[in-house]
Amino acid sequence: MNIIVNGQPQIVADTSTVASLISEHDTQGTAIAVNGRLVKRPEWKSTPLHSGDQVVIIKAAYGG
Length: 64
Prior knowledge:
Layout: E1 2-5, E2 8-11, H1 18-21, E3 30-34, E4 37-39, E5 54-59
Parallel strand pairs: 1-5
Antiparallel strand pairs: 1-2, 3-4, 3-5
């Protein structure tokens, strides 16, 4: 299915969840929003993705 991740089209499996989408990324300091709604880390595995979803992955920047 087709979704949008940080403004870029991406094809993912029909059974994808937030957790499977970011499984290959370092998730330290990461926040995820799906269709404008923040998804808390404990909900990543149970939050399915649907065709057309808009996903925003935000990584915290450290420094001073």
